[in-house]
């Protein structure tokens, strides 16, 4: 028993000595000051939209995509939305319906290359009809990023559909579209 006791005392003294030699931990603090960046369409406004087709004597629907490259570097988490309005597609005295342009399903959304983003959570209902009239009516919400989403650089890509009735006159139809990126969902 004495030998075991002497061994325990020796181990305790050895461990106790090691604890006395260990350096004390020091506490410090660190800060990171992050200033809000910019918010807007990257590389300016979205590009022009162009539909092209050949009249067939039957009703048809033309399709095209348009990329909205959105940069939200504000760090606010406020969310954002894209609103749209337009004038009626017209060539001479001929027009297309004021409800001719639609987006039938939610646009795709993806982080831009080289960006780690929080992709937009969209709550807009589809199909969406682009408002149109001789004078552009009030814009409506085409796509949105809910609060705490849509942060960083990302691209939303809707597929636009243009309804062409069988009775449409041939020609180059023009319409002016107004697309806005607004803070808040």
Number of strands: 14
Helix content: 10-25%
**Physical arrangement of strands within the biggest beta sheet:** 1-3-12-8
- Number of helices in the DSSP assignment: 1
Query: Taking all residues together, what is the mean pLDDT?
Result: 90
Order of helices and strands: HEEEEEEEEEEEEEE
Percent in strands = 25-35%
Given the C-alpha coordinates, what overall shape results?
Answer: elongated
Cα radius of gyration in angstroms: 31 Å
Indicate the structural class: mainly beta
Uncertain segments: 4-18
Main beta sheet strand tally, sense and closure: 4 strands, antiparallel
**Span of the ends, CA to CA:** 78 Å
Report what the structure shows.
This protein is mainly β and 185 residues long. It has a domain at 56-167. 11% of the residues lie in helices and 34% in strands. The protein contains one helix and 14 strands; from the N terminus they run αββββββββββββββ. The chain has one helix spanning 2-21; strands spanning 39-41, 60-65, 68-72, 80-87, 90-91, 94-95, 101-103, 108-111, 128-129, 132-133, 140-145, 152-157, 159-164, 177-183. It has a four-stranded antiparallel β-sheet with strand order 1-3-12-8, with no helix packed on it. A hairpin with a 2-residue loop joins strand 5 and strand 6. The longest helix has 20 residues, at 2-21. It is elongated.
Pick out its properties.
four-stranded antiparallel sheet; mainly beta
Write the layout of secondary structure elements.
Blueprint: H1 2-21, E1 39-41, E2 60-65, E3 68-72, E4 80-87, E5 90-91, E6 94-95, E7 101-103, E8 108-111, E9 128-129, E10 132-133, E11 140-145, E12 152-157, E13 159-164, E14 177-183
């Amino acid at each position: 028993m004495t030998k075991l006791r002497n061994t325990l005392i020796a181990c305790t003294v050895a461990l106790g000595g090691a604890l006395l030699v260990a350096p004390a931990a020091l506490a410090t603090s660190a800060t990171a000051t992050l200033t809000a960046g910019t918010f807007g369409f990257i590389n300016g406004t979205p590009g022009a939209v162009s539909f092209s087709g050949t009249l067939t004597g039957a009703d048809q629907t033309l399709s095209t995509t348009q990329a909205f490259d959105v940069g939200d570097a504000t760090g606010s988490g406020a969310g954002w939305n894209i609103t749209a309005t337009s004038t009626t597609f017209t060539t001479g005295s001929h027009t297309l319906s004021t409800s001719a342009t639609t987006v039938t399903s939610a646009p795709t959304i993806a982080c831009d290359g080289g960006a780690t983003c929080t992709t937009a959570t969209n709550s807009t209902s589809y199909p969406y009809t682009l408002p149109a009239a001789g004078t552009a009516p009030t814009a409506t919400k085409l796509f949105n990023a809910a609060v705490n989403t849509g942060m960083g650089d990302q691209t939303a890509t809707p597929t636009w559909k243009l309804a062409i009735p069988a009775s449409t006159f041939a020609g180059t139809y023009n319409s002016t579209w107004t697309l806005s990126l607004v803070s808040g969902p």
